Amino acid sequence: MPLVGGKILLKDAIKNKYAVPAFGVVNLEGAKAAILAAEELNAPIILQTTEGGINYAGHEELAAIIIACAKKAKIPVAVHLDHGRDIKYHQKSLELGYTSLMIDGSTLSFKENIEITNKVRNLIKNENITLEAEIGIIGGKEDDIEEDNDHFTKVEDAIKFIDNTNIDMLAIACGTSHGFYCKEPKINFDLIKEISSKGKVPLVLHGGTGIPLEQISKAVSAGIRKANFDSELKKAIISGILEYMDKNPEAFDLRKIFQVGINKAKEIAKEKIKAVGADNKNWLK
Fold first, then answer.
1. Which of 176, 276, 279, 284 is a good FRET partner for 218, with 20 to 30 A between their CA atoms?
2. What whole-number distance in Å separates Cα of residue 179 and Cα of residue 40?
């Protein structure tokens, strides 16, 4: 039963200096693509859902998909609530068996962000469940939320936030953006290094889609221990399906049609797994 607590994944990533790849999921196809990629590369991963994905598919339904896939996997998998802003999503996620949570209070005042983070921490009774929070605002479009500008995380704010909460991971604004990039991102690697060294808490890279692979690897070397990927895999599934239907316009067997999309997304996921150094880090064997 390879469904594991987030802390177990994080502990190994810290020890061996790689990042756990976290893939956004809204359906069975996305979950299968991520797990197939991880199994081929013998890598631990995280499957994560957002409030928007939950509203689309249903919380119970989506949880059933990702947890069932995790339990059958040959590699360790954690299931994570990403960008949870409403506490009711955290409560329900814990009831359904999620093993990691992210409270996103980044648009609140600094004081309010600390308060809501500590409220979610108090909900967690299992010591192996991780809590992630965010400081600074990461631009672009994530789920149903869109931000026009980045607000880089300040080192002093990160340290103060860590000191006043009991978080396990901190997502920082360091030059990445959610969704697809209009121009090449410029990641502030020095900022990652400084917060990592002073904060003593594993850092999370959001907005991993479209970042050149060498920049992802460099961010991991600077201190990133969890890296999120979402839009690019979803686009790959759609692209694969469209290509298949263009060549086979009379096709109707969803199993064959969707499998092409899964296979295409799987290859993208494998690139990300290698970039964060998680390949061959399956500690179950």
1. 284
2. 26
